[in-house]
Amino acid sequence: MNKTLKLALGMVLSIGILGSAIAQDQFPDVPENHWAYEALANMKRNGLLVGYPDGLFRGGRPATRYEMAVAIHATYQHLKNITDGLQSQIDDLKKPGSPVDLGPIRDALEALQRDVNSMKGWGDDINNLKRMAATFEKELASMGVDVEAMKKDLKDLNDRVTKLEKNALPITVHGDVNFFIQAGKGTSGRFGLGTDGQLVGGTTENATRASGLLDGLSVFHEANLKIAGTNEEGPKWHAVLTIGNMLNGYGNTVMATAAGGSRNDEAVTDFGFRRLVAEFDESLLGQSFGAKIGRMGYKISPYIYMAPDTNPYFNSAYDKGEWTMDGALLGFNFGSAKFNVLLGRTNGRNTSAGTELSGVTAGALGAGAPGVVGYGPSLLAADTTFGAHLNLPLGENGGVDLAYLIHSGNTPAGVPAVDNVHVFGGDLKYNFGAIALNAGYSQSNVYVGKRNVLNKNNFAWHLMANYETERWGLGAGYREIQRHFAAAGDWGRIGTWWNPTDVKGFHVAGHFDFSDNLTLNARAEFLSGIGKNNIQTFNGSGVFFNGLRTSDKVDSYKIDLNYNMSNGWNAMLGGEFVDFRPTGATSRATQRWYTLGLGYNLSEYASLRLMWQISDAEAKTTGLWAAPGNATGRFSGNLITTQLSIKF
Asked: In angstroms, what CA-CA distances link 43 with 47, 122, 131, 192?
């Protein structure tokens, strides 16, 4: 709106070419490649510029005083219509007892806020319009315009704008509040097993003792306050402050490995900044760029750089796969291509109680097979991350992401003492009509200082094709994740095995929409070991890595049915089935989950979610596919969760 007024005053009143209107989209004598084409079109749509009776603009002809008066009156009317409309909206919102719902009110308030913010810069324009009205008073009067009333309206408008400028709030506040309740109970004196790898049914005081449903009751709360500056010039900034008792690992990227683990609401109420960012646009050597400085989130792709959501039971607005970083991000645009350079601290970003907010880890180095609990067999805590990320569009149908990252640790870990991991690779996405292709390759090299000590069996690649119709879709793919692949990524889970490595195999997925409200989703994956045992030499000594054999198999199936009801309710019924079948029947393990979910939209800004999950798992031996803590035997139980979310 402010932009339209400036165009009107700067062009219409300066050029002053106005006359009787003949409605058409644009003036025939203004070519599309003219610098003022869009501006003239916008002003014509707003009624500020109408042209001559023959439909032409005639930009080279000087304006008469009468035409200038018409321009002034059109601009004044446009201003008056805007302000009258704002006042009418405000009056409607103030009416007591109006039977209105919250949705339109919020939309109206947001629109009003945008309009009010845009009015802050009207002061000079209104003063210019007042001077022009006085200069062309005679011509305006001859048109039947009440010039005195016009002057009074402009003065009143100027007073209102001045008042707005003095009393405008410097910040906006939005966010969400969440309440999360869960209770678990084992059956037949056993523990259950969650998909996050934690045991279900322990008491809050003694997680190793099976309990009743209420003994393990936990009540969590969390509030996220998003605060942003409203300044229109200079650097922009925003912050997200999180307060609650879920930051002790349960609502974060940390996964507990002990029975009961972080399922404990007796943690202290904690707080910390998830985000605290300033951003601005500058230029360097003639090249424009955008910069972000502070605490921010960043991700690239699952096999290169992405934070896993290790809490599948709690829905958060911040489960976006972004790692938290304190540092700087520089973004350069080269046409449609985008090039980002990032550098920051990615560990030790703690809350007031000392809880890690980021915890980037890389470096899958160590003997033996990966455990099923925790997020991958990672070893090195990445204190700093430095890298570059290039996004290159391929027309309108796809694009390529290329990246090179260096994760460095202040505390070397492993044998030998690994202190940095380099991850590089790329992802391709492209649509061939109804077929979507997704492919990628990524590699991780482990270093001690400048010496590459692990550069074998350390890559991953994947290929997926999807076919979509109006009612159904079908996809198939293949992936291979080598034994020592060590990106700080999130490439999924197989049962309680998060970010699996040393596997390869096919997967298929599909969905069918029975109606607009009823959808069936299904996925299956069939993996086997890669079958490579090798000796990696460090400083003259050999370390043996025992990988999975090609005869070791893992099959995974997921299916769910979703139904959206017209009264605000929605329901989900699902099942997940995993069979670990290594060579030798005695080491076989199975995991089963049956889930019923209900959701209800209390309003446009509040929702309630209920979930009941039955688990049934059995591990015949310790080792790779045992339960947390290398526990064997049968695991069965019930987990019930409730989440209330309110946005503001």
From this structure: 6, 17, 22, 67
What CATH code would you report for 172-647?
2.40.160.10
pLDDT along the chain (648 residues), means of 10: 43 38 46 52 53 54 58 65 60 52 54 54 61 69 74 72 66 92 85 83 56 75 92 88 78 37 67 93 74 95 88 84 94 90 91 82 48 43 93 93 93 71 95 94 89 84 96 96 88 87 94 95 95 57 62 94 90 96 76 96 93 92 63 84 94
Phi first, then psi: give them for residue 260, nearest 5 degrees: 80, -50
The answer to whether 364 and 378 are in contact (CB under 8 A) is yes
Query: Which letter does DSSP use for residue 465 in this model?
Result: E
Distance CA 29, CA 273 (A): 56
What the block records as the tokens of 606 is 């509040």
What are the start-end ranges of the E strands in 306-394? 323-334, 337-345, 361-362, 380-381, 384-393
The answer to whether the CB of 640 falls within 8 A of the CB of 612 is yes
Per-residue burial over 325-344, b if 16 or more Cβ lie within 10 Å, else e, is bbbebbbeeeeeebbbebeb
Q: Answer for the pair 635, 193: CB distance below 8 angstroms, yes or no.
A: yes
DSSP conformation class of 585? G
Spans of all domains in the chain: 2-168, 172-647
Six-digit token string for 288: 């424009």
Q: pTM to 2 decimals?
A: 0.72
